[in-house]
Design a protein that fits this description.
The chain is an alpha+beta fold and 360 residues long. The protein has 14 helices and 18 strands.
Length: 360
């Protein structure tokens, strides 16, 4: 086994490539490469070889030893040692470990090359489902949990090592609209969806990602804009669409600067930093990866206002029109232009004013 540093970063952190023998092969001392054959072992023995001591212990405690040694084929999504919080460990210790494990097991062998954004599979725990994703940047997720070591082959299945335990929530139980309507902190955005008449769209099949400004974020908007959104169908629709992309974007798959196109047709910039902060537009994700049957919701700290929702005064910001805005303020017209309309403004730039270009 060896490691090689590469000139690439994930969220500002340097990365390396790990080279090791493929499952079923081993290195013979004094020979290059992995020339020795190594028999595949059952999933329980494989999990032990991978150092998954906590999962291995839990399997034995749950009475599933014989199942993972002799039955199959299975796919096991196994949390790495240390991946569970103290609260999760306490919850599992207080309840039967069997349901926890069955939510991480699928009754067939699924390799990462078979993952797809639309691929929802049923686990061994009743009607509980999980979603598998493969992204263009190479990221792999299950229910938006990052897979850190995929495709570890055993004789009766495959293990994908994940960096935390899967949620007990069934990702197929609620639509995006249901998720948003059921959360008190999303009530303002939920009402804007109703004003925009987009309920049907967000309850139908398909895959969407909603970067949803919370009530706190939306109350940071001016009362003029908020009232306009609450009373104008076209404005509400443009605003809501500007927070939705037609994709299934897990937070774990954002590895650096990237851009997506919203349903409103605008570009949405996203990136991340080494401390785990994910930036969406001018805000950050405050609550990531709320799963739904037709997509995923991320709560964000700031709204993204499309230009056709802003007033002409607000749209003049950043256009080199500072002198004109000073004149508006001096003439007490800024408020009027922000509340009434529609208007068409022909505005001299700051350079025009400096050059003394005036029409008499």
């Amino acid at each position: 086994m060896c490691w090689k540093s590469v000139n690439q970063e994930i969220c500002g952190k340097p990365t390396s490539v790990k080279f090791e023998c493929a499952d079923g092969y081993e290195k013979i001392q004094g020979q290059p490469g992995c020339t020795g054959l190594k028999a595949l072992r059952n999933l329980l023995a494989t999990s032990e070889e991978l150092g998954l001591s906590w999962v291995t212990s839990l399997v034995r405690d749950a009475g599933l030893t014989a199942v993972l040694e002799t039955a199959g084929a299975f796919t096991l999504f196994a949390p790495a040692d240390g991946a569970l919080t103290a609260q999760q460990l306490a919850t599992i210790n207080r309840t039967d470990s069997m349901p926890f494990l069955l939510r991480h097991l699928v009754n067939k062998r699924i390799l990462s090359s078979e993952f797809d954004a639309a691929d929802v599979v049923q686990t061994l725990y009743g009607n509980h489902h999980i979603r598998l994703n493969r992204y263009a940047n190479g990221a792999l997720t299950v229910n938006c949990v990052r897979i850190i070591s995929p495709d570890r082959q055993g004789s009766n299945g495959v293990i994908h090592v994940i960096d935390r335990a899967l949620s007990l929530t069934d990702s197929s139980s609620q639509t995006i609209y249901d998720v948003i309507a059921g959360e008190e902190n999303f009530s303002v955005f939920s009402s804007l969806i109703d004003t925009a008449e987009m309920k049907d769209e967000l309850t139908t099949e398909g895959l969407f990602t909603v970067f949803l400004p919370t009530n706190v974020a939306l109350k940071q908007l001016s009362s003029t804009i908020l009232k306009f959104l609450e009373t104008n169908h076209a404005a509400a629709k443009a605003f809501v669409q500007n927070h939705i992309t037609k994709a299934f974007q897990c937070s774990a798959a954002i590895g650096g600067p990237s851009t997506q196109t919203t349903l409103a047709g605008d570009s949405l910039d996203m990136t991340c930093t080494a401390d785990g902060t994910i930036y969406i537009g001018e805000g950050i994700i405050t609550t990531p990866d709320i799963l739904a049957s037709n997509g995923v919701v991320h709560a964000v700290s700031a709204a993204m206002i499309p230009d056709n929702v802003k007033s002409v005064v607000e749209n003049s910001e950043g256009l080199g029109l500072a002198y004109f805005r000073q004149l508006l303020d001096s003439a007490f017209l800024e408020s009027a232009l922000g509340n009434q309309g529609p208007y068409t403004l022909f505005v001299p730039t700051d350079e025009a004013f400096k050059g003394g270009i005036f029409i008499q």
